[in-house]
Amino acid sequence: QKEVEQNSGPLSVPEGAIASLNCTYSDRGSQSFFWYRQYSGKSPELIMFIYSNGDKEDGRFTAQLNKASQYVSLLIRDSQPSDSATYLCAVNWIKAAGNKLTFGGGTRVLVKP
Amino acid sequence: KAGVTQTPRYLIKTRGQQVTLSCSPISGHRSVSWYQQTPGQGLQFLFEYFSETQRNKGNFPGRFSGRQFSNSRSEMNVSTLELGDSALYLCASSLVRGLAIPDTQYFGPGTRLTVL
Q: Distance of alpha carbon B49 from its chain centroid, rounded?
């Protein structure tokens, strides 16, 4: 059973600080990794994806991937109250087999003014 | 470009009935995936369709089925509804690219199904 694990939180962060979210996965063969944000009552919204070891930056967001240790993380810099949401980590195991995302349970983030 | 659309947005059914949900992908996207989201189980993959063929299937009973049409629009059907089928059903579409580049899935607003 391929698994994706996230701390459920809530992760409480002061406004302007850095929020650090972690995700671990069980299958070393995993190929691509995605971060989604989901506001209460809404559908998931793609933040970014990463598939090579190292860091990938997009605005205030940085994804970090370490395949040897089987974890992927998301940093949110200069956190804003509007960043308060649940962040979902998702893994696509083998792209050649098509699109089949396995999601973690999500980490709830609360940014306090 | 219009996003993924799903109809209906809300649905109330009773046990034993069947339901059909519809999804229109982003223009040009040929892969459509369906997910079920519940508070207890989180987001779980149901199936994926590409070029009118089911390419992947999750661990759901045969009561859950789907299909895709030549215009890439997709429907999913749940027969003999059970109370536990109450959930948010999400459709996601993606542009299928080469093997070296991940396909990014974009979600629709979902259909909230309540089974009484």
A: 9
